[in-house]
Amino acid sequence: MFSIPRHITRSQLLAILLTGAMVLIVFRLFYLQIIQHEYYVALATDEQVKRLEIPANRGMIYAMDGDNPVPLVMNQQVYTLFADPTVVDEPKKVDEAVRSVAGGNLVVEDVLSKITDKSSQYKVLAKNVTLRQAELIKEKKLKGIGFQRVSQRVYPEGEMAAQTLGFVNYEGKGQYGVEQELNDRLTGKDGLLKSVTDVANVPLSIGKDNIRQEPVDGDSVVLTIDRNIQAKAQETLLAGLQRSGATHGSVLVMDPNNGDVLALADFPTYNPTDFTTVTDEKVFRNVATTEPYEPGSVLKTFTIAAGLDRNVIKPDSTFYNTDSIQVKDRTITNALKDVTGTVTMQTALDNSLNTGMVTIAQRLGDGKEITRGARDTMYDYFHNRLGLGERTGVQIANEQPGTLISPDDVQGNAVRYSNMAFGQGLDVTMMQVAAGFSAIVNGGTYYSPTVVAGRMDGSQLVREQHAQERKGVISAEASAQAKEMIHQARTGYTNTDLPGYYVGGKTGTSQTLQDGEYISTQTVGTYLGFGGDDSQSKYVIMVQVSGENMNLEGNKHAMPIFTDLSNWLLGYYQLQPRA
Amino acid sequence: MSYTRTAQYAGRRQQSWGRNQNTTRFVSPVKLGPVMHTIIVALMILVLGLIYLTQASGSAAYDYQASEIDQKINELATKKADLEVENARLSALETVRNSDVAKAMTQPQSTQYVR
């Protein structure tokens, strides 16, 4: 058994024990404070220092109202009102308060039964409650009621330009339209607050490693869309569809002198606030940029422009029309028969004669065949100069390039190019066609279309440099001649324009492809035209109407929409008619 | 009669001081031992600690004020944004179109142009 040596007194023993204990404590402290220093510092930092994200505000989106920007998409802090039934002590009072202050925001019908059902501690009662409403409810000091703050996009103009705008999903990411295409620019950069906090997460300045990085808000983007033109485009499109019975339609309005897109209307449409209720994804798509199609006869204006620029035709050049023309093993016929004999190119355009366009394509070659040289020339005009078959770069998500077969491709043969001369055998978007057509009627300068006018700096619009332009894609003389021919083609067809203005246009009725074959039971009606005064075209409008198993025509169903909008635009721009 | 000397004066010759310098020095009669020194140092540390704590808690009080002001700024910014949204809604085309003023408007009979 352990015994204490006789020569050690009790006090000495106590001293030895205490010293031993002290040594142990010192070693332990050394271990904790020196060896484990980093570990415990990290633990303490985790406990005391909080990293708080300071969210950046997503940029707003504006449209133009004449020369003034007006908001189309804004941000609003709203609250989700919830209840914890296990804490609610005065259910009737809560029911009364919630109904009286936030009755329009309720997401449940029977509030009382929800707040008395104690099976869950989190019952959402109302959504999108404003700060003022939240304050009014808080003033009543009700137990068991809480608010959760969320930021949401709001759309003061409702459905306006929905397919151009897109929406922001629950992860805060832009989907479709400008929201998706300019997502990085609109998002901004979140800030960071790293600080010692108290129990209530109030940042304290006692820490030595505190960091505060201010958030950088996203750019507020101003679109070229004019809300008045946009609203009118939507209105006339809807009215036109109701008249024709068509189920789908799109209208594009562009300023031919700079490529600004002034309106982009699609039907069916949706309200971006309620994007979750949309069941058909196609409704989100911006048809003018994402759905290439065969535009049909409106592309005859491109063939005419190429022929005029290459000097192979004049408006009064003639050819002999037999209502059919042979290209290799294919016979191409006209839709409108009996305008036969020697006819001018103006007549060919007026009556949309396919044979006339094939003749121009032949004259771009050796005059008899659509030679490789002719095809190269057509490709140069259609693709390189006027931008068909490639993305225009307009700032709308998911833009499609379409298809324009090059003469280098084995499929880029004479038959295909004969079809392309009158708008078949290629897939292009309305945006491409409108941009190319703008160059034809504006004197020969191609402007890449854009929907972004600039950004807001405070309350000031800072205009941005325009996208690229290509001057001289056709000569000014060819442009003037083509414009006059298109004007004649319209005025010879209809007298519905306001007198004293210079308006032109071309119809297009295109068959649709089903399983690689053209079907006769479904056609798409298109109209493409311009308007303005004698000095300048102020706008280009392209209209497309379609419907499943419906034969829709450019002249009957698309042109009236153009006419309504064009006549309104002449007044909107306050253009003076010639005396 | 006796008296207690409150100060001692040492002759200059006893010191190795230079000529024309102060020839006397003051020597306090109060003697502080090592314990007192320790206590004084401890008290000084305590006072310094208290000063530090006062300053630190003082700055924390400013933190709370700053936090309250930040909160107020956020609330006002939210209210401003709400008002801007309300303003945008009230001046939206659909609202304007349905306003009494717009409904009372009539189409002009004719338009004259100044040339």
Q: What class would the helix/strand composition of chain A place it in?
A: alpha+beta
Oligomer: heterodimer
Radius of gyration of chain B: 43 Å
Work out the largest interface and the residue count of each chain: A-B, 25 and 22 residues
What is the general shape of chain B? rod-shaped
Strand content of chain A: 25-35%
Instruction: Give the termini distance of chain B in whole angstroms.
Output: 129 Å
As a percent range, the share of strand residues of chain B is under 5%
Mean pLDDT of chain A, rounded to whole units?
93
Tally of contiguous helical segments of chain B: 3
Q: What's the total number of strands of chain A?
A: 24
Helix % of chain B is: 55-70%
The largest pleated sheet of chain A is described as: 7 strands, mixed
Descriptors for this entry?
heterodimer; A: 579 residues; alpha+beta; seven-stranded mixed sheet; 18 helices; elongated; B: 115 residues; mainly alpha; 3 helices; 0% strand
Provide a concise account of the structure shown.
Chain A is an alpha+beta fold and about 575 residues long. In chain A, about 35% of the residues lie in helices and about 25% in strands.
How would you sum up this structure, described in words?
- The complex is a heterodimer of chains A (579) and B (115).
- Chain A is of the alpha+beta class and 579 residues long.
- Chain A contains 18 helices and 24 strands.
- In chain A, strands 2, 3, 4, 5, 11, 19 and 20 form a 7-stranded mixed sheet that branches.
- Chain A is elongated, with a radius of gyration of 35 Å.
- By secondary structure, chain B is an all-alpha fold.
- Chain B has a domain at 34-97.
- Chain B is 57% helix and 0% strand.
- Chain B is built from 3 helices and no strands.
